[in-house]
Amino acid sequence: MFRKISNIFLELIFPSNCFACKKPGEIVCIECLQSINLLSHQVCPVCEKNKTNQGAVCLSCFKKKDLSLNNLIVTADYRNQKLAHAIHLLKYQFISELSFPLGKIMTKGLKENNLINFDFIIPIPLHSRRLRWRGFNQSQLLASVIAHELFMINSKSVLLDDLVLRHKWTTPQMKIEKYSSRLANMENAFILNKHYFRNKNKLENKNFLLVDDVCTTGATLANCAKALKPIKPKKISAIVLGR
Fold first, then answer.
1. Could you tell me the pTM of the whole model?
2. Of 18, 55, 81, 228, whose CA is between 20 and 30 Å from 63?
3. Domains in the chain, start-ordered, CATH in brackets?
4. Is 161 helix (H, G, I), strand (E, B) or coil?
5. What is the distance between the alpha carbons of residues 233 and 111, in angstroms, rounded to a whole number?
């Protein structure tokens, strides 16, 4: 509450400027927004080498292991300083307003890759402790924008922001150097909300979209997708701003 009051107070004294070029008027101006270009192609989310349509798992990786995640769309290049800065401001400076332009960029990425046919959209959940610290779940805000942009009036019925719960406290992935440690950190981090078990048949054989801000090893997305297995999803795709 203190953070929200402070933001309102600061907004009255210092009207919004573009976070990148400081032009007054908007949290991000149209010029800076357009400078965050979509990636021209997608690659296999596992090996990150083979180009694939819609960011699908390549045949080679598909044969090696049983994977829960079918597709991953990486919207833009994380090396773009404006994109990286915007994500940092959203997550660590609590500028939640940035979720709207960033969510629209993600929606554009889905449309460009012709990956828009979903039954449900699921934001990667935060642990309750981190949610209290930040005051909001940035993935949920991004997912809300995507749901609205794709489904308009039906967006609330499409967005299931409590179907998957994060019941295990984990260290932020970016703070862990070893790949094996990152995988272990996210193991069994997510569970299905028992509330939905009564309507399990309405969720079976559906297409799901997972939404997160960034992807490192892919362990977070993979384990969240794994948690959906009991409801027998038809297809699980994911989208992130950058990797």
1. 0.89
2. 228
3. 1-35 (no CATH), 40-240 (3.40.50)
4. coil
5. 22
Extract long-range pairs of 132-140: CB within 8 Å, 24+ residues apart: 134/91, 134/94, 135/3, 135/4, 135/94, 135/96, 136/94, 136/96, 137/161, 138/90, 138/91, 138/96, 138/99, 138/213, 139/211, 139/212, 139/213
Return the residue matching tokens 């979209």: 209
Q: Distance between CA atoms of 192 and 208, rounded to whole angstroms?
A: 14
Residue type at 237 in one-letter notation: S
pLDDT digits (tens, 9 = 90+) for 194-229: 888 887 889 999 999 999 999 988 999 999 999 999
Encode 152-173: b = buried (16+ Cβ within 10 Å), e = exposed: eeebeebbbbebbbbeeebeeb
**Tens digits of per-residue pLDDT, 165-199?**
998 887 777 777 777 787 788 888 899 998 888 87
Please report the sign of the dihedral spanned by the C-alpha atoms of residue 151, residue 152, residue 157, residue 162: positive
3-state secondary structure of 207: strand
